[in-house]
Structure formats: C-alpha cells, structure tokens
Predict the 3D structure of the following.
Amino acid sequence: MNFDLPVASPGAAETDQLLGALLLISLAVLVLVFGLMALYGIRYRARSTAHRGAPGEKSWRFEIAWTTVTIVAFFALDVWGADVYMRQSQTPAHAMKIYIIGKQWMWKAEHEGGQREINALHVPTGRDVQLIMTSEDVIHDFSVPAFRVKRDVLPGRYETLWFHPNRAGTYPLYCDQFCGTGHSEMVGDIVVLKPVEFSAWLSANGEIGGTLADQGHTLFMRYGCSGCHETTEGGGGGTVRAPPLIGLYGSLVPLADRTVVTADDKYIRDSILMPASQIVASYPNLMPSYAGQISEENLVKVIAYIKSMAGETPR
Amino acid sequence: MSIAAGLRSDNYINHETTVRSWLVTTDHKRIAILYLCSITAFFFIGGAAAALMRYNLLSPRGALVSPEMYNRLFTMHGIVMVWFFLVPAAPAVLGNFVLPLMLGARDLAFPRINLLSWYLFIAGGAIAMFAVTYGGLDTGWTFYTPLSTNFSKGFVEVAALGIILSGYASIATGLNFIVTIHRLRAPGLTWYRMPIFVWSMYATSVLNVLATPVLTMALILIAMERIFHIGVFDPALGGDPVLFQHLFWFYSHPAVYIMILPGFGIVSEIIPCFARRPLFGYKFVAWSSIAIAVIGFFVWAHHMFVAGVSVYSALVFSLLSYVIAVPSAIKVFNWLGTMHKGYIRYNTPMLYALGFVGLFTIGGLSGLFTAALGADVYLHDTYFVVAHFHFIMVGGMVTAFFAGLHFWWPKMTGRLYPESWGRVAALLLFGGFILTFLPQFVLGYLGMPRRYPIYDPGFQVLNVLSSAGATILAGGYLLPMGYLLWSLVYGQPAGDNPWDATGLEWRTQSPPRVQNFSVTPRVTETAYNYPPPEQQEPMA
C-alpha cells in the first residue's frame, strides 16, 4: 500500500498546509466533543452519586461564547482557503500553454510545437504550465493529485488550469467527473521531466506538420478563411471586407451591439462556430458558421495560428 | 391508561382490520405505517445496490460486475436512497405519526392529501424502480448534462417522471405539516412550548415546499432536451450544461437539509429524555433549524467550485457555506450542554442519539474541508466527498431515524423490543459505519476519484477495509428488522410512557386510539420540563 502522496509542485505543498490545519482543528473539536460526551456520560450516568447541584442557570453567555468562537474560526479557515484558491485561479504571465481535449474516454494533449499525445502529458520542471482545456462531448474533469489540482473540462468552453511542477516523476492523471461507461479508464500519466530531458522529448516527438500554429495556417488556407480575412500587413484578403486578424488576440474588440470584448480563446472559438452571435462593429454579418465542420483539435490549431499573429503584446 | 390495558383497548391498529381499511385510511398513524413499510423496502433495495458495489470494489479490476453495470448500480443506489428513503423517511414516517400527537391534534390538517401523498410516492417509486431496473440508468443520481441529455441511452425520462411524482408527495406532506403546525396546536401550546421535533419538521416542510418545484423544472427541462432538443443545456445549440448544475443543486443542496433537519429534531427529543434534563438553549436550537432552512437556499454553488463558475461567486458561496455550519455547531454544543449534570440512562434510543452526535460531528467537520476553496479544488469528486456526505446522510440521518424509530416504536406498536438486542444493534451500526467510511477519507486524500469501478491497485487495502466495515454495517441494519418484527408478537406491552418522557404523544395510550386523545390536552408548561434531579427516582 502506498500512503505517501507525492508533492510535485509548490501549490501542492500549499494545499497540504491548508489540509493539515483543517485536520488539526477537526481533531481538536473531535477530542472536545467525544471527550465531553464520555466525561458527562460517565460522571452523570443515572446511578452515579456525583453532585449535580441545582439545575444550571440557562446562561446566554455560553451560547454567545461558543457561537463567537465558531464564527471566528470558520472565518479564518474561509479566508485561508480563498487565498489558496485565488492563487490556483490566476495563471502567471508567460506560462507555457498546452491544449487538452477530453472525449469519451481519453485525454488528448497538443503542445505548441505540434507534439501530440494521448492519455499522457509531458511537462518540464521549473516552468509554469497552463492547460487550456475543452471537451468534445460530455463534461470531464482533469485531476492530478500530485499537484492537488483539478478542473472540470466542459464542451463549448475553454477552462484553464495551471501548475508549476518541481519534482520529476510520473504521476497519475484521472478523470474526476463522471462521464459514462469508461469513466474509470479515462486515466493517464503526467510525466514531469527535467528541462533538458523535456527538450529532448520535444524534438524527438516533433510533428512533420510543424508547430501548432503552422498546422493552423494550413487549415486556415484549406477552410478558405484567407479569402476574406487579411493575414499580412496591408495585403491579402479578397473582395469581401472582414475584420483583420493581425494583432487580434488579446486586444479589445468593439462589437456591433456597442459592447466591448477581449479577444481570448473563447471569443475566437465562438466567432468561428457562431459568427452571428458577436458581430464586430462596422462589419456586415456575412461569415458562415463552421459548427460541425471543424473538429476541436483543428479549432485549437486555427486558434494557435491566430494567436501567433498577435505580435509581442498579448494581454 | 393503565399499562396492561393498552393493547386490548380499541386503537388505530385494531379498530378496523381489513386490507381495504388500510389502503383507504386517512388516519395519519396508519399512513405513517404505510410509509414505514414502503421506505423499508426501498432502503433494502438501495442497500443491496450498495452491497454489490462494495463487493465489486474488493478488487481493483472489479470483482463482480462490468463497469456499465457498476454505473447502473450507483445510479440506482443514489436515486433510491435520496428520493425514496432519506427525503421521506423522517417526515413521512415519524413526522406523520408523531407530529399531530405532539400538537395534541386529532390528525393532520388535510388527511386526504396525506393519503394522496402516499399514493404519489408509491407511483413515483414504482416508475423510478422500473426505470433503474428494467431500462437501466447510468447518469448518476445527479443527471449532469450533457451526459444525461445527449449521450445516455437509459430511461432518463421515465426516472425523471418517477422522481417528479415523489416530489409532489413531499410537497403534499410539507404543506400539510405547515398548515397543521399553524392551525392545530392544542390550547396552551405556544410556539416556544413546542418540542424541537416540531420546529425541525416546520423548517423541513418549508424547504420541501419551496425547493422541490425547482427540481421538477430541471427534470422536465432534461426530458424536453432529450425529446425535442430544445437546446437549454446543449452547447452545440447555444445552451449551457452548467446551468443544469445550478438548477439541480438549487434543489439538491436544500434537500441535504430536508434530510438532516429531522434528525436534529429527533435527537433533541431523545437526549433531554434520557439525560432527565431540559434541553439546553431551547431557543437557540429552535432558531438554528430556521436559520439552516433559510441559509440552505444560498449555498448551492459550493458543489461547483471546479465546474467553471466565476472566482467571485466561488468566494461568496464558500463564505456562506461556512456561515451555515455555525447553527449546526451550535446544536452540537447544546446537546452536550443538555447532558451536563444529567441523570443519563443508556437505553437503545439514547445510544443511537449519541452515535448520531458523534458521526454527525465528524461529517460536519469534514464539511469544513470541502467548504475551504483551496482544499475543495483538491478533494472535489474524490472519495473524501463520498465519505463526507455519507457521514451526514447515513451516519447522521439514518442513525437519527433509527433513534427515533426505537424511541417511538413502543408508542407506534404498543410493544417493547428486547433492550439488549437494541443496544447491540446500535453499537454494531456505529462500529460498522466508522470502519466503512473512515478509510474513504484517506482514499479521497490519496486522490481516488468517485464512481470508479476500476481503480489504482494502490487503493486496494483501504477499499477492502471499507467493504469489511460495510458487512458489519449491514448486520447493524438487519438486526433491528429482526427484533422489531419479533416484538410485534412477543414484545412486552409498552404502557403509555415507557421512557417517562414529556410531550403530548406520551399522554395518550399506546398504540393511540383512532382519535388520538379522548380529551383534547391542555399545555401548561414548556417542553422538556423534566423533574429537577432532587426529585429523580432511581432508574433501572
């Protein structure tokens, strides 16, 4: 039996501290409650002759005292838990991005260099890694106990998760959200490598199709996107005027309904699948929907290509 | 009112004896018995599913059934135990029987609606059982979309219909209780003289009436989505699968309190009786139930901290989840305060009640872990959560139900069960429960996900321990079945008030006559007015 759970990131150590504090407080309360039950249970059993005195005065002071102590302790725990959660929720800038696609019942990963893997994920130590995750079918959940993190993976959305591996090794990956018959077999390995080994792994597994963005460019031409959207400074595009894509990613986009949105992964994805839902201000509603024509994996590639045109000033 | 007269006198059981007289009865006591028989059947069906699952988990590759079958088993276990045992158990059995007696009333306000409630429950139960056995259902009791709408081939619509009907049964009972408590209290029975069990039934009923319709709507939307593809939840049609989780938990979190609040009430009756002391902090305990019922509506999203809700809503829902833990903690301290300087007798109901306090405290403390955002991100959907809610629902509520059943059994049947067997069963239940579910906390911390028929071999030892505990626990549940049935024929006559308890239900004969009381009682004192220790007689 293996009781020691690896601590493979600073975040995991932080979660363990919080869990340790919760455990200590719980044990103290358990000792108090079970202790008093045993103490009163023996001392004041019916046959005992222990002195009871007059019935105790119904003191409100007791009620106020234990209510106050409980509130203060709970509030402290809540703030601590929230603090850890905020750090878990905010991805550091310049994290390495990896795309994850869940489907019944496997995990697919795509690295920016075009490397692909199934039911495995190779990451280096010493870097912040951000996963950008979506699902092809039902809700899954990407859970890595060694990092003490998990996040639901939803169809039609990009959910993100980040961690900072600091210990090389192979750790289990589970699907934690029930997703149908093969749920318990939707598992894999998180392989944490030292940076040198990771570089070697990347070059050994590079695809002939080039990086994710290169593959996206190929798709961009094949789907005919370049017929309308200009992709080079001042050139390209056809007779139809469409919003330019250079510098788009991470910028603020004014929409026809006078709202302004940030062009993130979700925005680009929605614009490809449901173009009519977010019309860019001063452009006509002409683009056809690509829903049902482009797979989640290819979407990720096209988005990577559009991202690559963002220039050096992402959000 | 003499001890031996009880059984021979005219009472609700022997007043009429035909089967038809039971099936068309409007007597709250008979309907309680009908409910008791039905929920016992459901409890053993749901328990059998759990037993098969625990057997299967003996081996990391699955010792008995295919993953598909395992998924059907836990779906069946969840649906049956939540909607056809836990939700109706305490209100529809104990509440139905005891509430009018406690109020000094002849019956509930709407006796026919009470009977209708049982028929709705039976119809719903039959339909749901057909869905989970004949059709098979593999969505889990939570019906998460889009798995339940676009992918499951099981009888989702049929199961939804069964659950909706049982929901109407809960609403009918809840409405009946609210009106009864407002309108049918005996002369002199002011709100602050009511037993805490009545307060907790009131809070439970309010939750039943207000929360259940939301579940009905959510389930109807699922059926519409499956049949007409209306696109409320399907992202391909512009819907949002997470919306279903909001609707589902808007019912199902209050439902947790629907299940546990009656337990608080039962234990608040038993501990003062067997400690021979007034309940410590009566008003705090009473208002804690109301506070839980109100705050219970505002914590639902703590089931969704990793499901893609915004960071800010997670912060708010985490704080509210800690807030709702406060009134529960207050109750535990007040029960301990009641034992202080008491004259404590360890009859079977008291052993169950103390077991409840212990197990509920462990369950509540583990809730502090899952309410802490940073910890929940790790523990969510692991066995830690399974252990947490089983400590509350089974260690807490089922133990409290057994406490109540043993406390009021002499009143319901006029017979005493063998006390020593009762104590053995209470201890078996406590030990078996701890052995079953304590290892699951560790499994969860080690990362074992829920709903896995096939698991990492490293988790096997703890799973085997848990399954071993489950066999002891099963003994703890089967034993009372045996001696309680035995007592119906061979038990000693109970007399009107075997526990020397206060409360109007003990002022009438056992079993009670059809009209409950020969003369409407008058209430002149507060609840739990147990004699001060100086006047205490030595107890056997």
